[in-house]
Amino acid sequence: MYTTNAWYRTHGYHPPFDTWFVLMWVTFLIMVTGYFGFSLKFIEEDRYYTKEFFIEDGGINNVHRQKSTWSFLGILFSSIIIFTCMKVSLTDTSDKRVMKESKERDMSYAMVKGIPVVVDGWCSICKSNVGSGTRHCKFCNKCIQGYDHHCRWLNCCVAESNYRTFILFVISTFIASTMSLWLAINAIGMYFNSESKYNYELILHNILPSSTLNTVFFGLFINILLILLSSIIMAFVGHLLFFHIRLYLMDMTTVEYLSHQQQRKYYSDNYEDEDDENPWRRPYYHNPRKRWIMSVIRKFYKLSRCCTRSMNHKSRDRVEYVHNV
C-alpha cells in the first residue's frame, strides 16, 4: 500500500484519493444537477400541485409556490451535506499523545492485513503508548484517537472528534436522497398521467437542447436514472444510519462491534453470562431498557430474513479470549 511508513494522511483531501471518494463526489454532482436542473422543473408546471398546495384566500395565494419550497430544501440540505462532508474529512483525528511525542516512526515495520499494528496499547509504527480507544489505521497510516472506522467514501477516519458531524452527514444525505426520489417519481408520474403527459413533453423540450434526438426517450432515461440512483443511495445510507443507531444503543464503536462479531462466531448465541470475566461473551446491553429495545429490533430483523443462519459454531478454548484490535 505504501512505499514507506514515513507517509501518513493528514486529512481526507490528502492524496492518494480513494476510488470510492471520487465516486461519491461524482454521484453528488449528478444528483444535484438532476435535482435542480431536471426534477424540480416539473413541479412548476404541474397543475395538480398548483391545485393541491396553493390555498387561495380572496384570490390571493397565501402559500409559497412549491418550487420555491423544494428549491430552499434542496439548497439547505445540499449545503449541509457539503459542509459536513468537508468538516469530517478535514478534522484532525490523530492521537494527540502520539503527535505530541513526535517519535521517529518505524520504517521497517510491514503492515499485514488482519494483523493489528497496536498491541496491548503499543503502536509498532508510531512507537508510542496509546489509549484503549486508539487504533492505527492502515489506510491513513497513523494512530486515530477514539477510532470508529475508516470511511472510504470520505477518504478519512471517523473517530470521536468527527463522529457527530459524520452522523449529521448521514442523516442529511438520507433526507436529501428521499427528496430527490420523491421528485423524480413525481416527474415520471406526469408522463404516465394522460392529463399531464403533454406538459411533461413540453417541459422536456424546454430543458433539453433542441438538437437532442428523441427528447422524450432521453428525458425518461434521465428520469429513471435519477430514480435508481436516489433509491440506491437512500437504501444504502438508511441501512448505515440504522446500523449506527444500533451501535448507539449497544454503546459500541464500529470496530468494537466487528471485533465482537468475530469473537462471537466461536460461541453459541445462547451463551451470555453477566458475570463472565471474558467481556466478549457478556451480553451487549448492560442497560435493561437498551436490552429490551434491541431484543425487539432483533426479533423484527429475524422475521425479515429470507434464510435462517446456520447456528453451527467452531469449538474454541474459552480461556483464550484476549483479543487485540
Task: Sum up the structure in keywords.
3-stranded antiparallel β-sheet, mainly alpha, protein-cysteine S-palmitoyltransferase activity, 325 residues, 10 helices, lipoprotein, 8% strand, membrane, two-stranded antiparallel ribbon, disordered C terminus
Can you describe what's shown?
The protein is mostly helical and 325 residues long. The protein is built from 10 helices and 9 strands. The strands form 4 sheets. The protein has a 3-stranded antiparallel sheet with strand order 3-4-5. It is elongated, with a radius of gyration of 26 Å. The model is unreliable at 45-50, 52-64, 273-284 and 306-325 (pLDDT under 50).
List the helices and strands and how they pair.
Layout: H1 19-39, H2 41-44, H3 47-53, E1 56-57, E2 60-61, H4 66-90, H5 96-101, E3 118-119, E4 122-123, E5 128-129, E6 135-137, E7 142-144, E8 147-151, E9 156-159, H6 163-191, H7 197-207, H8 215-250, H9 254-264, H10 288-304
Antiparallel strand pairs: 1-2, 3-4, 4-5, 6-7, 8-9
Helix pairs in contact: 1-6, 1-8, 4-6, 6-7, 6-8
